[in-house]
Write a structure and sequence with these properties.
By secondary structure, the protein is of the alpha/beta class. The chain has helices spanning 17-31, 41-60, 66-81, 88-99, 109-116, 130-139, 153-156, 163-173, 187-196, 226-231; strands at 5-8, 121-126, 150-152, 180-184, 200-204, 212-214, 217-220. The chain is built from 10 helices and 7 strands. β2, α6 and β3 (150-152) form a beta-alpha-beta unit. α2 (41-60) packs antiparallel against α3 (66-81).
């Protein structure tokens, strides 16, 4: 079956979230006079990332709101530093303002989307908040590629790897799952999730050195290899 539509993840797939978050937290901690309390900048980034990895899944599970997980991460970081938490919302907002000036897309993204434009329906399925993700796409000049086909778990009510959010993304494109590919940077949530939902699953692993099929998921090292990979007939088992 020909692939007529492609759904993408955003963070660390289209947009270099990890690098941007690093820049943002280091700028923010330095501006707040807190960076010197860590053994190194790497230690500060590692703790911020660890807190996100612990609290963000609670948002995806419905235990916290999107803003709620931001507040908990802030409170835990400041508690670790022994700083009184008087207004965590304002503290996080100052961090976000510094982070949001640094959003950038990976170099392979714009050429790949331009190559697909006009021939393939494009959309997004993301485990996040729609307003938040649209802001990123607009900041890096990618929003026009997707139009209204941007689906996020916060508004949909269910997160990847649940099959229903992949199927809802296909519906936004007006296509059945067997005619849609999904591309993301997480093998388990994106690759296996899309495969099990009946889509053509592609794991974007920029550390890989070749295109291969792993457990029914096509591994690509760059979006520059995406079109050739599915044109060559790489398919889920």
């Amino acid at each position: 079956m020909m692939i007529r539509g492609i759904l993408f993840d955003i963070d660390d797939t289209l947009i270099d979230y990890s690098a941007t978050a690093r820049i943002g937290i280091l700028r923010h901690l330095e501006a707040e006079g807190l960076l010197e309390r860590f053994d190194s900048p790497d230690a500060a980034v590692a703790l911020w990332r660890e807190l996100e990895e612990q609290e963000y899944p609670r948002f995806l599970a419905g235990e916290l709101t999107f803003k709620g997980q931001q507040m908990v991460r802030t409170e835990r970081l400041l508690a670790y530093l022994g700083v009184a938490v008087t207004d965590p919302e304002s503290w996080f907002a100052r961090y976000a303002a510094r982070r949001d000036t640094a959003w950038s897309a990976f170099p392979d993204v714009a050429p790949a989307l331009s190559e697909l434009a006009g021939t393939t329906a494009l959309g997004v399925v993301s485990n996040s908040s729609r307003d938040h993700q649209l802001g990123k796409l607009q900041a890096v000049g990618l929003a026009a590629h997707f139009g209204e086909a941007v689906l996020c778990s916060s508004e949909f009510g269910v997160a990847k790897p649940d099959p229903s959010i992949f199927h809802a993304g296909c519906e936004l494109l007006g296509l059945p799952p067997e005619q849609v590919a999904y591309v993301g940077d997480r093998f388990d949530i994106d690759g296996i999730g899309a495969r099990d939902a009946g889509l053509h699953a592609f794991w974007l692993n920029r550390a890989a050195d070749r295109v291969e099929v792993l457990d029914g998921v096509t591994v690509i090292p760059s979006l520059a290899r995406l079109r050739a990979a599915y044109a060559a007939g790489s398919r889920p088992a």
